[in-house]
Design a protein that fits this description.
The protein has about 375 residues and is α+β, with helices and mostly antiparallel strands. It folds into two domains: about 5-195, Ribosomal Protein S5, domain 2, CATH 3.30.230; about 200-370, Alpha-Beta Plaits. About 45% of the residues lie in helices and about 20% in strands. The protein has eleven helices and twelve strands. Strands 1, 2, 3, 4, 5, 6, 7 and 12 form an eight-stranded mixed beta sheet that branches. The chain has a four-stranded antiparallel beta sheet with strand order 9-10-8-11. β9 (about 325-330) and β10 form a beta hairpin. α2 crosses α4 (about 145-160), α6 crosses α8 (about 260-285) and α10 (about 310-320) runs antiparallel to α11. It is globular and about 65 Å long. The protein starts with a helix and ends with a strand. The mean pLDDT is about 95.
Length: about 375
C-alpha cells in the first residue's frame, strides 16, 4: 500500500513536511446522551484518515484525495464552502477557522488518504477536520492548546460546513488509548479509561451498506423534541442535573408531555443510565451483562427514539438469535449505518453465514470489521 508520504511526493514533486494520522471513532453507547448532559462510551477504531502538508510560496491551496484520485484547488482569499468541492470542504473549513483566528499561513499542498468507511458512523468527516488541524499546528508550531484546537475543528463542521459535530468525537480522536474505551461525562467532558478485555469474545462492527438518504430532518426533529421536553421536565424537578434523578422521578416529570416527546426524553435518560452500568460491566469483563445493555439500548433506539430501520433490526435480531452472541445494538445516528455485536469466536462463524441471508433479502452486501479499541491521533 502506498504511504501518504509517497502519494504526496508523487502528486506535488516534493515530500510532505508534516503527516498525521487520526483514527475513526465509534460511540458504543450513548449516541444521543449529550441531549441530557449524560454519559457516553466511545473508542477509536482501526481505520484512519491521514493528511500530509507541504508549504507553497504563493497563496494557492491545492488538495489531492488519494482514494478518489481527485484534485481541488482554491486560494486563501477564496476559502468558501462550495458544494462541488465535497470532501475538500472539510479541509477548507479548518483552514478558514485557523486563519480567522489569526494563525496565518501562505499556500499549501495537501494530500488526504482515508480508509474510514463513510456511512458506518465512524466519524469520517470529523477525522478529516481533526487531521487537518493537527497537521497545521505541527507544521507551523501554532501556540494553541487542545481546547482551542477542538474549537477550530468544531466550528469548521458546524459553522463553515453547517453539519453536526460532537465534541466527544474530537476528544476521543485526540485522547484515545489502545485497548481502552472512554467513559465521558458530557456535561464536564471529563473522561475515564475503561480496559476492554473480554477474553476470547469479540466485538464485531457490521456495515449494513443501506444507501444514504436524507434523514437529518428526522434526527433534528427528535433532538428538538427532546430539548423542549427536557426543559419542561427540569422545571418540575428540584434543580441539579436531570440525568441524576431516579427513573421514577423522571417518569413522573415526563407524565404531562405528549406521548411521542415523552418516549424520546425517557429513552435519552435511560440510555445515559445504561452507559454507566455498561461501563461497569466492561470493567468486570462481564460479556453477558454488557450484552444485555446492548440489547436494551437497541430496543430503545428502535421502539422509543425510533431511529432504527428494517435492515438494522434484522442484523441485530439475527445476531442475538445465535448461541454465543451476548448482544447487538446500532451505532451511529441511525436510519442505516452499522451494528456492534459482542459474541464468542464460534458464534462469529455462524453470524458470517447469516450475513449471506441478509444480502439475499435486502440486496446490500454487508461488511464486517472486528473491533479493537485503538490509540489516539499521531504524527507520522
Amino acid at each position: 500500500m502506498t504511504s501518504i508520504h509517497e502519494l504526496h511526493s508523487n502528486e506535488y514533486g516534493e515530500p510532505p513536511e508534516v503527516a498525521v494520522s487520526v483514527p475513526g471513532v465509534i460511540t458504543l453507547m450513548g449516541e444521543y446522551s449529550d441531549l441530557c448532559d449524560g454519559y457516553a462510551l466511545t473508542g477509536a477504531v482501526d481505520c484512519t484518515t491521514e493528511i500530509s502538508i507541504s508549504r507553497r510560496t504563493d497563496n494557492s491551496l491545492r488538495f489531492y484525495s488519494a482514494e478518489l484520485d481527485e484534485r481541488k484547488r482554491t486560494t486563501i482569499p477564496n476559502l468558501k464552502y462550495r458544494r462541488e468541492d465535497r470532501w475538500a470542504n472539510y479541509i477548507k473549513g479548518v483552514l478558514y477557522e485557523t486563519y480567522r483566528r489569526n494563525f496565518l499561513f501562505k499556500g499549501l499542498n495537501i494530500t488526504v488518504k482515508s480508509n474510514i468507511p463513510q456511512r458506518v458512523g465512524l466519524r469520517a468527516s470529523t477525522a478529516v477536520c481533526t487531521s487537518t488541524a493537527l497537521a497545521l499546528k505541527e507544521l507551523f508550531s501554532f501556540d494553541v492548546d487542545d481546547n482551542q484546537l477542538i474549537q477550530a475543528i468544531y466550528f469548521a463542521e458546524t459553522s463553515f460546513l453547517q453539519s453536526k459535530s460532537r465534541l466527544v468525537d474530537i476528544m476521543t480522536m485526540l485522547n484515545a488509548k489502545e485497548g481502552y474505551v472512554m467513559l465521558f461525562d458530557l456535561h464536564s467532558f471529563e473522561f475515564s479509561y475503561i480496559p476492554v478485555d473480554m477474553g476470547s469474545d469479540v466485538f464485531l462492527i457490521t456495515e449494513s451498506n443501506v444507501p444514504p438518504f436524507p434523514v437529518r430532518e428526522e434526527i433534528v426533529y427528535r433532538e428538538e423534541e427532546c430539548q423542549q421536553g427536557l426543559a419542561v421536565m427540569r422545571s418540575k424537578l428540584q434543580g441539579g442535573f436531570i440525568r441524576d434523578y431516579s427513573i421514577g422521578a423522571i417518569n413522573a416529570a415526563a407524565a404531562p408531555l405528549p406521548e411521542e416527546q415523552k418516549r424520546f426524553c425517557v429513552y435519552v435518560l435511560e440510555e445515559s443510565y445504561r452507559v454507566q452500568e455498561a461501563g461497569h460491566a466492561l470493567e468486570q469483563k462481564d460479556s453477558l451483562a454488557y450484552g444485555r445493555f446492548m440489547n436494551r439500548s437497541q430496543a430503545g433506539l428502535r421502539d422509543q427514539f425510533e431511529v432504527s430501520c428494517p435492515e438494522i433490526d434484522w442484523l441485530t435480531k439475527r445476531a442475538t438469535e445465535i448461541n454465543g452472541c451476548y448482544g447487538a445494538n446500532m451505532i451511529g445516528p441511525g436510519f442505516g449505518g452499522s451494528t456492534l455485536s459482542l459474541m464468542t469466536q464460534a458464534a462469529r462463524d455462524d453470524y458470517i453465514k447469516r450475513l449471506e441471508e441478509y444480502e439475499h433479502i435486502f440486496g446490500f452486501h454487508p461488511e464486517l470489521i472486528e473491533y479493537h479499541p485503538m490509540g489516539k491521533s499521531r504524527i507520522l
